[in-house]
Amino acid sequence: QVQLVESGGDSVEVGGSLRLSCEASGVTISTKCMAWFRQAPGKEREAVVRISRDGLAVLEDSVNNRFSINRDNAQNTLYLQMNRLKYEDAGIYYCALDDCHTNWARQNEYPNWGQGTQVTVSS
Q1: What is the spatial distance between Cα 10 and Cα 109, in angstroms, rounded to a whole number?
Q2: Residue 88 exposure: Cα atoms within 13 Å on the Cβ side
Q3: What is the pLDDT along the chain (123 residues), one digit of tens a residue?
């Protein structure tokens, strides 16, 4: 049974940094594509970034040059490094896993999700 557990969410000041983790079990993440999504209050969940099996990252424009994704295959853990955080980055962050479908930002392509971790950005 695949299980994804996010952690690292916290309250951080604007301009600050945060690192989220997503620990996977029941699956070898190096054989999959993984992504981070987020959902702000009152908004739909949106794609943030994905990493392919080969370690190639695709980021949404709003987080490009501020966020980065990487994966520790030995620890079977996915990370999201968030720098220069903005108010609009706040929300619940979810990690997800799929078989590398073409439309990486489409939520329905991801059968496995974590429970989410809360990121709050304040002044």
Answers
A1: 28
A2: 5
A3: 999 999 999 999 999 999 999 999 999 999 999 999 999 999 999 999 999 999 999 999 999 999 999 999 999 999 999 999 999 999 999 999 999 988 999 999 999 999 999 999 998
Contact between 37 and 93 (Cβ < 8 Å): yes
Place of tokens 């099996």: 53
Task: Name residues whose C-beta falls within 8 Å of residue 47's C-beta, 6 or more positions apart in sequence.
Answer: 35, 36, 37, 60, 104, 105, 106, 107
Radius of gyration of the chain (CA): 13
Q: Say which residue the tokens 């490094």 belong to.
A: 81
Q: Give the up-direction half-sphere exposure of residue 34: CA atoms within 13 A in the CB hemisphere.
A: 33
d(CA 110, CA 112) in angstroms, rounded, equals 6
